[in-house]
Amino acid sequence: MKSLKATYLFLFLFGMIGLNLETQAQDAKVSAHYRINPLHSRGFRDPLNPGEKPGFYTMQISRLNLELSNKGDLSAGLSIQDRRFWGDESTRDDKATVTIYRAWVQKHFTEAFSVKLGRQDLIYNDNYLMGERAWVGTLAHDVAKVIYEKNGFKAHLVAGVNTKGGELDRDLYLGINNYKNMQFLWLHKDFKKLSSSFILQNLGFENADSSLTVYNMQNIGTHNELTISNSLSLTAFYYHQLGKNGKNQNVDAYYYSAQLTYTPIEPLSITAATLVSSGDSQNDYEDPTNTRSRYHDKPFFNGHEHFGLMDYFFFKNNTYMGVNDYFFKVEYQVNPKLKITNTTHEFFTNQVMNNELNQAMDKNLGIENDLLIAYKVSNGLKVTLGHSIMFGTDTFQQFTGGKTITESQYFYAVIVANPVFFQSKKDN
User: Fold this and answer.
1) In 266-363, at which residue ranges do the beta strands (DSSP E only) sit?
2) Which residues contact 39 (CB under 8 A, 6 or more apart)?
3) Domain boundary assignment for the chain
4) Contact call for residues 103 and 118 (beta carbons, < 8 A)
5) Rounded Cα distance, 425 and 108, in Å
6) What is the dotted CATH code of the domain comprising 99-166+176-424?
7) Which residues make Cβ contacts (< 8 Å) with residue 179, sequence separation at least 6?
8) Residue of 317, 308, 315, 251 lying closest to 279 (CA atoms)
9) CA-to-CA dists, residue 192 to 7, 97, 271, angstroms
């Protein structure tokens, strides 16, 4: 009841705002986002071992959003969210599960220059370094963002410092999976056939002791998208990571991709690509005297969208050895409503793992296939069916714990609805 009352109050306030819009020079929109995801796991994120049975769950994300936009003065966004697995609470529980998902205000000083403050997303360059995880739905940043955008040039400067509460004396910032401080610069320019971005990022994480030491890691790199011809395009990025990690090691890591897309006919596109994230050999990783790490850490990228939909890498399993992903993707737009996508990956460790006898293993991890069938029912409703399967090697089995793997696949559906309850646009 508590969360229901909060929702009613939220809608009432939206309604009061809507009644006032006739005299306001601003756009307003009240909308919702529902994401319902039934999933039958036969090894999703963690392969099945002998004696284990397949699992099934349905996860639902529900959001209520208010957007106010006045490019001449003030814009604001407020989004409340409930995220749950069906049946994970008693039907008689009276628990407030609604949380603030987004809450920001943006002051427009000129048409090109603005400042955005509050809880917001940071999504850049196809989610490879900074992105959103739609399946998780909990990633947000409490930051200040300075924005300048004019004539195809964009500059975003982001900064944030986190504490557990109203800190009067410096205290440990532990127990929360987040950075202590972050600074982020994104420069982007659109040319005739090239879109190019430059990124400089610093992430400061607090050491897990009483020293209040913050170790800082930097990413510097570029992301580029080139239109070679009407049927051929190239996407490429490179990020280099420097600084110190939580083990007080010197970081010297890399992360890059090259993706060539060919569109022979308009409904069909074919992509051949490589995606590489560096890592440490098992010998170096386990050596307590090792002072250097080649592991590239990217805590805020969209790991589900990249490195395969089975989510074996950079999620539950410690991917210290890095991953090389060579994949081939085919997309076919059957009609305006129906699209079929199939992606086949072959994974390799970036550095060597060892078996139980401490002997170096082959780098090949195996082949994964991801099939998606997406159907647009209407403008506000989309349904996706998916199946992913992994054919792992002995190295993959060692990577996931060393136990015999009986199955590595899953089936799922994603139903996304985005109804608009109210929308008003100012007269130009």
Assistant:
1) 268-277, 292-293, 323-333, 338-349
2) 56, 57, 58, 59, 410, 411, 412, 413
3) 99-166+176-424
4) yes
5) 18
6) 2.40.160.100
7) 160, 162, 203, 204, 205, 299
8) 251
9) 46, 48, 22
- Pairing state of beta strands 141-150 and 113-120? antiparallel
How many angstroms separate the Cα of 40 from the Cα of each of 22, 58, 285, 330? 49, 9, 35, 25
Give which of 379, 207, 237 is closest to 298, Cα–Cα.
237
- Chain segment 173-222, per-residue pLDDT in tens: 776 678 889 999 999 999 999 999 999 999 998 877 767 788 999 999 99
Q: Print burial letters for 218-239: b (CB count within 10 Å at least 16), e (below 16).
A: bbebebebeeeeeeebebbbeb
What stretch of H or E contains 15? helix 2-19
How far is Cα 253 from Cα 293, in angstroms, rounded to an integer? Answer: 7
Helix, strand, coil: what percent of the chain each, to 5? Answer: 10, 55, 40
pLDDT digits 0-9 by tens, 78-111: 999 998 899 887 766 666 678 899 999 999 999 9
E runs forming strands in 191-231: 194-206, 214-227
- What are the backbone angles phi and psi of residue 115, rounded to the nearest 5°? -130, 130
Q: How far apart are CA 291 and CA 248, in angstroms?
A: 7
- Which tokens hold the place of 282? 């098992």
Decide if pLDDT at 19 tops 50: no
- Going by C-alpha positions, the residue among 376, 285, 277 that lies closest to residue 336 is 376
* Mean pLDDT value across the chain: 89
Closest CA to 141 of 160, 157, 155: 160
List phi, psi (to 5°) of 300.
-120, 20
> What whole-number distance in Å separates Cα of residue 297 and Cα of residue 283?
19
In residues, how long is the chain?
Answer: 428
| CA separation for the pair 186, 392 (Å, rounded) | 38
Task: Give the Cα separation of 251 and 242 in Å (integer).
Answer: 5
Tokens read off for 380: 């506000």
Structure tokens at 169: 């004396």
3-class state of residue 276 by DSSP: strand
Strand locations in 14-97 (E): 27-42, 55-69, 74-85
Q: How far apart are CA 373 and CA 384, in angstroms?
A: 6
